[in-house]
Amino acid sequence: MPRVSQLYFKTAVIFLIVGIGMGLNMAISQDHSVIGAHAHCNLLGWVTMALFGGYHALNPRKAERRIAIIQYCVYTAGVTLMVPSLYLMLLGNAAMEPIVGIASVITLVGVLLFAFIIFSSEETVVTPRAQPYR
Ligand code: HEM
Ligand code: HEM
Question: Which residue puts its alpha carbon closest to atom 4 of ligand 2?
Answer without folding.
Answer: 104
